[in-house]
Amino acid sequence: KKEREHRNSCEFVRWHFRCLLCFLVPHPHIIGPESAPKVTAVASSGFWFHTSEPASSPSSSYLHGRLRILQQESNMSRAPEDPNNEKLQGYALLHNYGLAHLKSSALKCAVGLGIPSAIDRCGGGATISDLVKETGLMPAKLPYLHRLMRLLAVSGIFDESTPLSPVGESEAVYKLTPASRILVHDNSSTSSCDMSALLLLFTRPETTVSTFFNLEAWFRDPGSQTPFEMAHGMSPWSLTKADASYNDAMNIACVADSKFTMDIVLKEGGIIFQGIKSLIDVGGGHGIAAAAIARVFPHITCSVLDLEQVISKAPDRGQVQFLVGDMFEFIPAADAVLLKAVLNSWDDDSCVKILRRCKEAIPARDAGGKVIIINMVLGHGALDKAAKEAQVLLDMYMMRGRGFEREEHQWKNVIKDAGFKDYKIKPLLGPVSVIEYLFTR
C-alpha cells in the first residue's frame, strides 16, 4: 500500500513537471541502514545531488534523509555564480523590451476577438477549443490561438492551468484575472465596468501607436511641434474635428474611464461632494461623471462644459445640463468645478489659465467653493511595481501633446500661480488621486 501511494505521488509530480526525470526510491527505514544506498536524482537544471545516507536507526535515517533532501533542494534553487549571468539577464531583458509591443498587440487582438467575454460566457474558464467555438474562428487557427493565450497568460492577463488527467493529455484552461475581468464587454455578472474601449484607444495603430514611431526624430528636431503634431500634422483636439472615428474612439474611451473612476471615487471619497448645491464638470465629455454624482447626490445641480464636437454626440443624462464652451474663455458659475483627467493634457501656463477661470466661477471657501481635480499625482498612492510603471507610462503617453503627469510639488506650483492658497490630496485609485483646491478670497 505504501509503495502504491509513493508511486501515485511520483506520477502526480511527473505529470505536473514533465521536465523532471523521476525515480521511486523506498524510505530509508524500509531497508537496512547498513545496506541503504545513496539516492541520486536528476533535475532539469543539470545539477546532481545525493540524499538518504545510512544512519544508526531506521527512524533517524528517515528523518536525516528527509532533511538532506530539503537542504539539497534549497541549494539547487540558488543560481550559480556565473560571470555571464548578468549578461544573460540583460539579453533576456532586451528581448522583453524589444518585443514588448507584441504584448499590447496580442491584448488588442484578444479584446477584438472577444476572448475575455467568451471566457466569461463559458462560466469563467475556457479551453482553446472552447474559445475557437465561442469566437467563431476557424479550427486551423487553434494552435496559433494557443500561442496568443500562452503569451497573455505569462503576462498576467489570463490565468492558465492544466487539470490532472489520468488518461492522457488535458487541455489548458484559461480563466479571467483582475486585468481581463474589466475587459469583458457584454452585460455579464462578473464585470461592473468595461475598460476595453480605453485599451483599444491606447493600442490604436493609426493614431496612438504611430505617434511614437519617430520619437528619436522628434527629439532631434529643433522645432516646437509635439510628437502628435509631427506624426499627424495637427493636435489631438484638431484631429477629433477632422476624423470622426478618432473622435468616437476618444469619447467612448473617456466614457469607460469615467464609469470606472467615478464608481470608486463616490464610494471611497464621496464626502468631498457634501455641502455642494451646484457643480460643473469641465471637459466632462458625455456626462458620465456628472450623472454619477447626480444619482448619489440628487440635490446637486450638475452641468457639463465641453467642445461642440463632444456635446453634439452626448446622450440625454436626465437632469444633467450640457453646455458648449471653451474652458480657456469662460466657465459658468457653480459651487464646485470638477476637472477629471483634464489638466494632465496641458502645460503649466495653460493649466494656470484654466484654474483662474475656475476661480472666477466658484464662491469663496467659506461659502463652499472648491475645485475638485481627479488626476494622477506621481509618487502618491499605494504603488507596487505595476502601479509605478503605469504612472510613468501614462506620463510618457501624455508627451504626445503638451501635457504631463505632475508630482506634488509641480501641482503645488500650479495651484499657487492660479491664486489658490490651500489644497488636499487623497489617493483613491492606486496611481490616481483626488485633489481638492480651496480658494480664499
Automatic annotation (TrEMBL):
Alphabetical list of Pfam families matching this protein: Dimerisation (PF08100), Methyltransf_2 (PF00891)
Protein's name according to its UniProt entry: O-methyltransferase domain-containing protein
UniProt domain O-methyltransferase dimerisation: residue ranges: 100-185
Keyword Transferase tagged: yes
SUPFAM superfamilies documented for this protein: S-adenosyl-L-methionine-dependent methyltransferases, Winged helix' DNA-binding domain
GO biological process, one term: methylation
Gene3D superfamilies the UniProt entry points to: Vaccinia Virus protein VP39 (3.40.50.150), Winged helix-like DNA-binding domain superfamily/Winged helix DNA-binding domain (1.10.10.10)
Entry keyword Nucleotide-binding: no
Residue ranges constituting the O-methyltransferase C-terminal domain according to the UniProt record: 213-421
Keywords, in A-Z order: Methyltransferase, S-adenosyl-L-methionine, Transferase
GO molecular function: O-methyltransferase activity; protein dimerization activity
